[in-house]
Amino acid sequence: TIGYEAWLRYPQLTDVLRIEAVSRWSGCMIVTEASEVIATAAAELKRGLERMLGVTLAARSSCDSGSGCIAIGTFSGGNESIARVFGDSGAQLDTGAEGFAIRTDAESGIIAIGAEQPAGVLYGVFHLLRLIATGASIDELDIVERPVNTIRMINQWDNIDGSVERGYAGQSIFYENNTIKSDLTRVEDYARLLASSGLNAIAINNVNVHHHETYFITERFLPDIARIAGIFRRYAIKLFLSVNYASPIETGELTTADPLDADVKAWWKAKADELYKVIPDFGGFLVKADSENRPGPFTYGRDHADGSNMLAEALLPHGGLVIWRCFVYNCKQDWRDRKTDRARAAYDHFKPLDGRFMDNVILQIKNGPMDFQVREPVSPLFGALPATNCMMEFQIAQEYTGQARHLCYLVPQWKEVLDFDTYAKGEGSYVKQVVDGSMFGYKHSGFAAVSNIGDNANWTGHPLTQANLYGYGRLAWNPELSAAAIAEEWTRLTFGSDEHVVSTVVSLLMGSWSIYESYTAPLGVGWMVSPNHHYGPDVDGYEYSKWGTYHFSDCKGMGVDRTLATGTGYAGQYREPNASIYGTLESCPDELLLFFHHVPYTHVLHSGKTVIQHIYDTHFEGVEQAEQMLRSWNELEGRIDTETFKLAGDRFAEQAEHAKEWRDRINTYYLRKSGISDALDRTIY
Ligand code: BDP
């Protein structure tokens, strides 16, 4: 099916010179090791090359010189061709546990992909295939790559009933009707997609663990979970499970889940032993506790260090990890108490606990203090926990950014977050160095993100939002890659090398975040979405409810005062100079103005426009740009397959139409609230 193979299509090369250049190295594949992951690597290399070249690639254990071969293996694994190309240097290449080296050795006629571990060999194979598919020369390769982040994880928000929380691309590929699917072919194909983009860990069930999923860690489900773990293992991906903090109670075995209770501790220890018997390389637990009505240690007057350490102790003998989410806030806010500002919550809860977590606990922090809005400041927790392992949580699923119906390429947003300067150790203390562990010497750290796939034929619903999944993996591997480079790489792999297609798709992707931002909630204030499903405009949808997601618009002005002096004090959670930059009206960047300040509609931005005129202008412009996206896409007719052309075309049409609804709802609202008319006197409904 179109789109099913995503960026692993490997279309046959058509340029004669190119075919010749690659064929020179494709006499055979030299593979000698028996490991499961190396077998996967060999199968991938075979599949990719055979497709691109239209030949059959034989696997041999040695090379009859002169034929031009590709050797794959670990440095110490006994593959003579690997030893021949890398000599003794292999071990010194510093490829680490997951990195690889690729070298073209003209003398022996071998391209060698070597690594310390089988996983590195697999990543090396995907890298070589990517080079070939995107048109790079392979005649003089001398590459050493290693991932910057050690944990590169995907979180599935899949439920055992087959639904996917915040899923916009169909049902689960893992579950249906309260069982684990018997046919897991798609899970295997998903593992390929993840590994090929560099990912190495997955939590396969929703962080909201309901009654049924509580039993994932019991004998009822464990044999099937082990089956899934086996699939991912072949792709060097570790399996994690989200667990219900109240499991001992929910399963009916104990009457408490108090982390300091001896029976509770023993229960989890026994549970861990049971799990590792079935899945010896089990990754660990992902936990959402005391958040949005999920159970947690607060019930027993314990804090989150007590809560997570108890689980960590159970997993420790087996080398397992506890990934503990910081998305903890009061979802029944009383707005009169400004200190309960939802934006403050994660920092207020976790900052005081710094240093109290065990070494195998990692705090998973959402990129912003609220919840995956199109624009938020960076969570002030990054850089504030020098003595606690931390990792990033992004959301690939576009819950608040168009839900696979609108195009919103999120890599540029993630890049901004990663490049944010926390000043934790003076100027140049970037978030990416916090999450890769280097800033504070964390024992464990990295990236996690909520997946955007489902059982739609093309995985992600909108054909172009596959780029978000791919881009996430590439960025987790190397946060220095540019958003544009990733976009181009993905486009070439997916659509081939028609330059008109490449430049159009790349510019559609690169412009899309800013376009989405311009016709939705303005200047960082966020929300304004329909409650519950979060699609489409509803300016006051959450305004008069308990969730703590306000914009405070009245007839005079709008925005949330989060300054130290007169507001909630959230701005003070940042280190200087960020605290002052955000906390001072004059220096606060325009795009976050309404996140930090309540201002009159006539307040003049750095751009020279008033807030109200900015709202009108961006909403009119956003619609024009969304319409332009549709026209650009339509120009690709005939250059890409008709099914994808139509599918994406329909989505672009819907986006352009829907952007008008956003524009009209927001502009009308602010015209009526402010009573100030548009300087350009355009029609506002
Ligand atoms: C919010 C989602 C909700 C999730 C929650 C979370 O609306 O469905 O359960 O985040 O991250 O974005 O736990």
TrEMBL record:
Superkingdom of origin = Bacteria
- EC number(s) from the headed UniProt entry: 3.2.1.131
- Kindly state which reaction or reactions the protein catalyses: Hydrolysis of (1->2)-alpha-D-(4-O-methyl)glucuronosyl links in the main chain of hardwood xylans
The Glycosyl hydrolase family 67 C-terminal domain is annotated at 460-682
Do you know which InterPro entries this protein is assigned to?
Answer: A-glucoronidase_C_sf, GH, Glyco_hydro_67_aGlcAse, Glyco_hydro_67_aGlcAse_N, Glyco_hydro_67_C, Glyco_hydro_67_cat, Hex-like_dom2
> Which Pfam families does the record match to this protein?
Glyco_hydro_67C, Glyco_hydro_67M, Glyco_hydro_67N
What start and end residues bound the annotated signal peptide?
none
Which UniProt keywords are given for this protein, alphabetically ordered? Carbohydrate metabolism, Glycosidase, Hydrolase, Polysaccharide degradation, Xylan degradation
* Start and end residues of each Glycosyl hydrolase family 67 catalytic domain: 132-459
Q: Which residues form the Alpha glucuronidase N-terminal domain?
A: 6-128
Q: Which GO terms describe its biological process?
A: glucuronoxylan catabolic process
Subunit architecture: Homodimer.
**Family from the record:** Belongs to the glycosyl hydrolase 67 family.
Q: What is this protein called?
A: Xylan alpha-1,2-glucuronidase
Organism of this sequence: Paenibacillus cellulosilyticus
Lineage of origin: Bacteria, Bacillati, Bacillota, Bacilli, Bacillales
